[in-house]
Amino acid sequence: MSRISIVVPVYYNSDTLKDLYEDMKAKVLEQIGDYEIVFVDDGSGDNSWEIMNEIRTQDPNVRCVKLSRNFGEHAAIFAGLSVCTGDCAVTKQADLQEDSSLILQMYDSWKKGNEIVLAARRSRKDNPFYVLFANMYYGMIRKMVNKNMPTGGCDCYLVGRKAINELIKLNEKNSSLTLQVMWLGFRTEVIYFDRQEREKGKGRWTMSKKIKLIMDSILSFSYQPLRLMMKMGFLFDIFALIIFISVVVEYFTVGTPIAGWSSLMCVVLLGFGIMMSMTGLIGEYIWRALDASRNRPPFIIDVIEGEDPSDRD
User: How confident is the model at residue 231 (pLDDT cuts 50, 70, 90)?
Assistant: First the structure.
């Protein structure tokens, strides 16, 4: 009989963890047979770790993983995938905004032979600004990285054991785990759901983290920014040549003196700003190459509590 692992990244989710477990228990756990739940504490500063272990005492199929510090949600999910023992694993957010019954649909899809199952948002009841920002991000991803990214995006997905093993081999940092899953190319199905409004807790997905995700997603999977730099340089060369020719022609035909210190400084400063931006972009690529070459792990596990279900087989 197959076993499914449910990987839940936890970061300041003490107010939703018990509700999350009860929701999964009522809608999912009794219907999926052999399972394990892997809670991963990503350096939470509240009592999430204690609550996770309270749940573990109630259910022997629960394992609790504590990272040494905050490494980010994608690293926490990766840590959960690295220790899970299921034939497949599904990621589950701890904010109660996705219906737990979605796990059953994804599990059934995996049983039909799909190695990867993406849970894409059909709609979302969030702040309109967040929705706009998310739609812009996913539009950029479809344009620059992966045209198969669902319109509403996806944070939750199921991966089979084959896909899990390949993800562990990749061992990438400063990247998007969702895009890594899609990059694998195994047989995939997309299941749509309606994301609910958050009723408990406070979101920790700050603007700085969103911007970092954009940078990581594009720079890790696309060379288009570099191509854009080349195109901009070529266009500026053409523009400068046209201006130069027009100034010389006007000087000899009309007699207009070649002057304009202010306009010259504007052009110089504009060109300097563009060059600095391009240098910074190249630096982002170089820094990622340096970070990868140091071969530091994307996460460090401090403690694992709970019995390995495979030991009971």
Answer: confident
Express each pLDDT in 82-136 by its tens digit. 999 999 999 999 888 888 899 999 999 999 999 999 998 887 776 677 777 778 8
CA-wise closest residue to 300 among 34, 50, 20, 71 = 71
At 63, give phi and psi (nearest 5°).
Answer: -120, 145
Q: Which two tokens stand for residue 141?
A: 């991803």
CA atoms within 13 A on the CB side of 184: 27
Q: Which stretches of 157-260 are DSSP H helices? A: 161-170, 177-183, 207-221, 224-253
Question: Cβ contacts of residue 200 below 8 Å, gap of 6+?
Answer: 15, 16, 19, 95, 96
Distance CA 235, CA 246 (A): 17
Confirm if 167 and 159 have CB atoms less than 8 A apart.
Answer: yes
H or E stretch covering 301: strand 301-305
Please provide the DSSP assignment of 154-176 as one string: -SEEEEEHHHHHHHHHH--SSS-
Model pTM score: 0.81
What are the structure tokens assigned to 271, written together?
A: 């060109």
Cα separation, 281 vs 258, whole angstroms: 35
**How far is residue 150's CA from residue 122's CA, in Å, rounded to a whole number?**
9
Neighbour-count burial of 242, counting CB atoms closer than 10 A to its CB (0-12 exposed, 13-18 middle, 19+ buried): exposed
CB 6 within 8 A of CB 35: yes
- Give the integer Cα–Cα distance in Å for 287 and 293: 10
pLDDT, one tens digit per residue, over 143-171 is 888 888 888 788 789 999 999 999 998 87
H or E segment to which residue 124 belongs: strand 116-124
The predicted pLDDT at position 259 comes to: 63
CA atoms of 60 and 81, how far apart (whole Å): 19
**pLDDT value at residue 69:** 93
Helix (H, G, I), strand (E, B) or coil at 83: helix
